[in-house]
Design brief:
Oligomer: single chain
Strand content: 25-35%
Largest sheet: 7 strands, antiparallel
Radius of gyration: 21 Å
Number of domains: 1
Number of helices: 3
Length: 268
């Protein structure tokens, strides 16, 4: 094969790996890769206001310059694992929706999305849940902070078929929305995720939004302002999807093949 063909294949693989989606959001929306309405529905605060700098109206932060919900979006964010400590803390920070008392939030099994573990049943700001795993598929939730789930025991368990790997879901009535947008109708993203860097302090928890912590901003309706249910998840790691890992491996293979061909040509 000619060197130029190898270069073309390598370029194609690199483009597939690193190119960002080029598109324009509709009028009144902004963001990449997810378009977010720039105003809140029903006169509510927008997500930009809720994640704004400390001291601005409606922000959840007491210290720091806040988060830009349009440019600070994190990818990948479809699947997750609990960090090495085996425990993750989860706190509801904001609910700007008429469904606040009935929305359900939890984790699902990538091997069987009907297999779920609920973390919140309804969600008033301040509800907290501890999620623990044994690393081989066993998960346990313990409910705190007046969380109305399982009031008699405060505890629930399940076993997933994909080890320490799970996705998040938001249930609205009988409809489930998933962190993996390919499981949603029309591949619609229902959650936007932001990573902590220690520069902002969350007023509700009085703790800094640090590395290993993530804000998930969910949309439960049709206005796509993504401030209906905002939850802080701690001590978790994003897990790249198998398709992404496969493309990365292909890129490395093609680059290695090109390098080998070039060395052979140089030695001729």
């Amino acid at each position: 094969m000619k060197t130029s063909k190898y270069i073309g294949l390598v370029g194609l693989a690199a483009a597939s790996l690193f190119a960002t989606q080029a598109f324009a959001c509709p009028t009144g929306f902004a963001g990449n890769p997810t378009c977010i309405r720039t105003t809140g529905g029903s006169g509510e605060a927008s997500l930009a206001q809720s994640l704004g700098a400390a001291g601005t109206p409606d922000t959840i932060f007491s210290v720091g310059n806040g988060i830009n919900p349009y440019t600070d979006q994190m990818n990948p964010s479809s699947y997750w694992s609990v960090a090495g400590s085996g425990g993750s803390e989860n706190t509801v920070l904001l609910t700007l929706t008429a469904n606040a008392s009935t929305n359900k939030f939890g984790i699902f099994d990538p091997a069987d999305i009907s297999n779920t573990l609920m973390l919140f049943n309804g969600g008033t700001a301040g509800y907290t849940t501890s999620l623990k795993t044994n690393g081989t598929g066993g998960f346990a939730a313990t409910y705190y902070g007046s969380n109305p789930l399982a009031p008699s025991t405060g505890h629930a368990t399940t076993t997933f078929g994909d080890g320490n790997r799970f996705g998040y879901y938001l249930q609205v009535g009988s409809t489930f929305y998933y962190s993996d947008m390919t499981l949603n109708g029309n591949d619609t993203p229902r959650v936007v995720t932001y990573a902590g860097d220690g520069s902002n302090k969350v007023a509700l928890t009085n703790g800094f939004f640090s590395a290993g912590e993530y804000l998930q901003a969910w949309e439960d309706g049709t206005d796509f302002d993504y401030q209906d249910f905002v939850v802080l998840v701690e001590s978790v790691n994003p897990v790249p999807e198998p398709a992404v890992l496969g493309m990365f491996g292909l890129g490395i293979l093609l680059i290695g093949g090109f390098a080998g061909l070039r060395r052979r040509r140089e030695n001729v």
